[in-house]
Write a structure and sequence with these properties.
Blueprint (H helix, E strand, L loop, with lengths): L4 H8 L3 H18 L28 E6 L4 E5 L5 E5 L4 E5 L5 E6 L4 E6 L5 E5 L17 E6 L3 E4 L1 E2 L2 E2 L5 E4 L5 E5 L2 E5 L5 E5 L7 E3 L5 E6 L2 E7 L5 E9 L9 E3 L5 E4 L3 E5 L5 E6 L4 E7 L5 E7 L20 E7 L11
Antiparallel strand pairs: 1-26, 2-3, 3-4, 4-5, 6-7, 7-8, 8-9, 10-11, 12-13, 13-14, 14-15, 16-17, 17-18, 18-19, 20-21, 21-22, 22-23, 24-25, 25-26
């Protein structure tokens, strides 16, 4: 699949005007730090092969949004639209069924990943001002797990008197408890607010529950790890569940109505059966950082890819020492259907 230049440019700048001022600020911050940040890889051709029951051969990705100010932690809203976190400008963006972009929520305390629980609460992994492209050493607001709607509330930002680190991803269960991970480990916030550690040895990123919520899956480099979930939310029986055979390290994840797990990686979206068998790769135009089913019937798979193109059709680049947060969001029609029992 090869996207045409005109469609790429149009999709890329649906949100650019709204984000340009914060992009300048981010460049100024990063420029002061003069760190060495790698530029995202550019767009590439992606030819999709059939995965039985999952996707048809020749299915194509469509670019629906892009811009310089980040996108991550995507989740399906009740109406089928897609919500995504924009950490640096502290927004939640929205893409509706007609691919129209709007700012859904502002002042999110640097939320970088989203979840929606059974009561409709919008939750976030709030990274506050810890972006390594800024001045995290000057940050006074502790990162953690927050409720963004119906009103802002901090759910957890410490464990045994210490901070929980910069959170990567989160997953909410049907009881209202929240699993989340960070460089400091993996945690569970019980519905009563108590925070427990579920693994201190794994440095994971993506995190997802099985349909029946009896199994917790986390990405761990090139492996998908599984745990058995206990009635109190704690976990046991840590084990390597599947290998990401197409290469790369796992990032975000989601599941479908049949219990298959979809993991975002550099080469694309890798699909694993409920038994842990590698089923195949859905190659992508860009390295994938987040993935979710959305749309009215939840048969559309969305992914966030690193990098974006500018008005002239060339890849957005930043000056040396300035972190490139440009992202692109694509969608593809599926044979599989996302799990309708919850948002993610």
């Amino acid at each position: 699949m090869k996207l045409k230049t005109k469609s790429r440019i149009a999709g890329c700048f649906l949100g650019l005007a709204l984000a340009s001022s914060t992009a300048v600020i981010a460049q100024q911050r990063g420029g002061q730090q003069q760190q060495n940040f790698a530029q995202p890889q550019g767009e590439r051709q992606a030819t999709v092969k059939e995965i039985a029951g999952v996707i048809s051969a020749g299915a194509t990705w469509k670019l629906v949004w892009g811009g310089p100010d980040n996108a991550d932690g995507i989740v399906s809203a009740k109406d089928g639209s897609l919500l995504f976190a924009q950490e640096q400008p502290s927004y939640v963006g929205k893409i509706d069924k007609n691919d129209k972009f709007s700012i859904y929520l502002q002042n999110t305390h640097g939320t970088g990943a989203l979840a929606i629980d059974s009561k409709g609460r919008l939750l976030g992994a709030a990274r506050t001002c810890t972006d390594p492209g800024g001045h995290p050493d000057q940050c006074t607001e502790a990162p953690g797990v927050v409720q963004l709607q119906p009103e802002f509330k901090v759910l957890a930002n410490s464990f045994q008197g210490k901070g929980v680190g910069r959170p990567n991803d989160l997953m909410v269960d049907k009881k209202g408890g929240v699993y989340f991970n960070s460089p400091s480990g993996n945690f569970y916030v019980k519905p009563d607010g108590e925070v427990i550690s579920i693994s201190e040895t794994l440095r994971t990123n993506g995190i997802i529950l099985s349909r029946d919520e009896k199994t917790l899956y986390v990405t761990n480099g090139g492996t998908l790890v599984a745990f058995d979930v206990q009635p109190d939310g704690s976990v046991t029986n840590q084990r390597d569940f599947a290998k990401l055979e197409a290469g790369g390290n796992g990032d975000g994840s989601t599941i479908d109505s049949e219990g298959r797990i979809y993991i975002s990686t550099g080469p694309g979206v890798q699909v694993v059966s409920p038994e842990g068998k590698f089923l195949g790769l859905i190659p992508s135009p860009r390295n994938v950082v987040s993935v979710a089913f959305a749309g009215p019937d939840k048969k559309t798979l969305y992914m966030v890819g690193g990098g974006a193109v500018g008005p002239d059709g060339t890849e957005l680049k930043t000056a040396p020492g300035v972190r490139n947060n440009a992202k692109s969001i694509y969608k593809i029609e599926m044979l599989a259907q996302g799990f309708k029992g919850r948002a993610k």
